[in-house]
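Hey,
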Amino acid sequence: MSLLSSFSGPMKYLIYARVSPRGSDFETETTIQMQIDICREYVKEHGGSVLKIMSDEFFSGKNMARPAFREIMAELESGNADWDCLCVYKLSRMSRSLRDGAHIFEQLYRWNKGFVSVTERNLDFSTPTGRAMLGMLQVFNQFEREQTAENTRNKMVSIAQKGLWPVGKPPYGYKRGEKGDNKLHVDPYRSAIVRDIFEMYASDKFATQDIQRKYPDICKQSILNMLRNRAYLGKIIYAGKEYDGQHTPVIDIELFKRVQGKMPVHKNATRPKAQKRNYVLAGMLRCHCGRFMSPASAKSGKHHYYECTDDVNCKNRVPAAKVEDNARERLLAWDRNINFDDEILKAGLEEIESARKSEMERLKPELLLEQNLLSQAKAEQDKLANFMLSQNLTDKTTAIFNTKLEKTITDIERHTGRIEYLKCEIAKYSEDIFKQAERAFQQIANLSDVLKKFPDDLEIFRQALLVNIEKIVALGDGEYKYYFNFDSSSNGQSWLRHLDSNQGPSG
């Protein structure tokens, strides 16, 4: 696929390559060097020149937090990029995120830069149908990433069942061992702090604020989470289930039970009156001090607000209804310039169906070829094995046949892996997945209209916020700073001082 029609004369290309943290073998992709070589060949075929080559090795495509790609975007958004076209081996090498992809291509269009994916050349992004197809390809990349995430979660469950720590930062008081060691090991210094916090909380002499004053680096919510964490009893909790861990407990069951008897109602077991409130900004709202702001309500259940998680030094609090109305108005006032009329959308969907059939026609013969090659390799393996069993071989001839057999086994493994990859690719282009992608694309294109049409639907409002806004910072006195996902004018930052006097788009 390419975006080249607005350029004339010799093109100057920037080549970008990436492999995931698990390497090229995991993603069934080429290595970085092979991606670069393939891109170089494309540039040579089209009479261009390679101005720069940049790569990110062992970085995920789920976001743009990659050193080389960040440098590319910074150069692009500053207007100082001296290359004409960004060249990648495949679209997924640049991004697997629908949201990030939209931002990247917005910047390319803004600065009149081209884009080419050398293995997906069947589309011109300068046309409306090309842009529609781009949206679909981004949906597929995100779908593939979510499938990978599901497989990873299954693997993590398997690790937890063995009593090992599956993923993420270990609980405070424990540490990891060597690479590949998922067992939790006791941290002598921090585990002493954990025991002290449990003992202070269980005692009638101390309140939670006394613990916070003694350990100011640990916020109240972290203390409460620590006191509820059954990992300190030698348990592993993952995906809502508990398993016996292989690690040493740092708290005995009697102390743990005494603490639980004094704990407030769990954060998920809210008061009946408070349950009626849907806090749509949960997880998005930050305090000016940098901490998250969590949902809360008065004991009567009539007043709802977001409060800073630091209730010792900060204690910032904002009314829930006020900040949520502010966010709704701000979201509706911000125009992302997504405007797909019926004709463009129809043409785009027709192009999608055409591309789907084209990909199926390309992939199926290759799959058949690989299956035939696999059958031939297996037959060769059987032939060599039978021959070796039926002959009186010398040490020299045995070594020769072993070498041939090892090569045949390697061929079998290669063809098997390629077949699995092609089957996955074909599944991505199945009709059911394309229909899902079409619906998703239509929903994205009409998001603003849907939000206006259903102003009281909190679920739609929540989804619109998640798509458009990265975070909101409450600065105090009714002032907020918005970080938009698609806002290129200020690298995602949008200043908002009293919404009624600043209704326009940021920038």
